[in-house]
Sequence to fold (249 residues):
Amino acid sequence: MDFEKIARILHESSYVVCLSGREMIVEDGIDSMRNMSTAYEIESKYDYSPEELFSAQFYSTRIEKFYEFYRNEVLNQAKEPGKSFRALAEMEEMGVIKATISRQLFDFPKRAGCRNVYDLHGNIYEKNRCPRCGRDYPMEYLRDTPKVPLCEKCRVPIHPGVTLLGEMVDIGLTTKAAAEVSKADTLLLAGAYMRSEMAQQFLKYYKGSRVILIHQGSAHGDREADYFLDARADVALPAIAAELRRLRK
Ligand SMILES: [Zn+2]
Fold:
């Protein structure tokens, strides 16, 4: 399976939806909490697991510690997206990719230039909101406040714009993302796995016949994809975008 063949399939598709997986942000240098050694480091540093720290329950009972963790381990990792996301944006610009769905929190698809993005779990930049008056605060305000960031007017803690474990996801947004998947004739799983929660959630709605899977190494479920490319997303997507440019000439 090579880049040219994948590019040709995308070129011949009429509605491509991309599920952008965790490996795409890991390749860009984000230290994923799901990474085993990071999880262990976090647990020894804070005495709680990442799952406990990032939960609605922890937020409501230990908000100072929550913000210490959120600031140090999440907000301080914020950076700009790399070339895999720029390639996605270019493919959207070309009209090949119609929508991108992500559960990562760093807003990489939009920051790279993708427009039709479904950030299912929110992101660190948007909707950092005062629960009382509804005012939104920029990420920098949360990052640079030494303790718990409070609304300047109401003096109550600002809730970050990400969905914590145990909180309701945005059902409206999830429904719209599912509708995008049901329209797709090709589904592109980039830096993702067939057995990931996100893939399992959306494959149910997919009615097309081409599932393209891109990630490095082998994983459970790879054979369920119609096309599997064993490559890093930041290698594969720019190469595929280049092939698409050539095909469209
Ligand atoms: Zn307020």
Observations:
- The CA atoms of residues 26 and 193 lie 14 Å apart.
- Residues 130, 132-133, 135, 151, 153-154 surround zinc ion (CB under 6 Å).
- The longest strand covers residues 97-102.
- The radius of gyration is 19 Å.
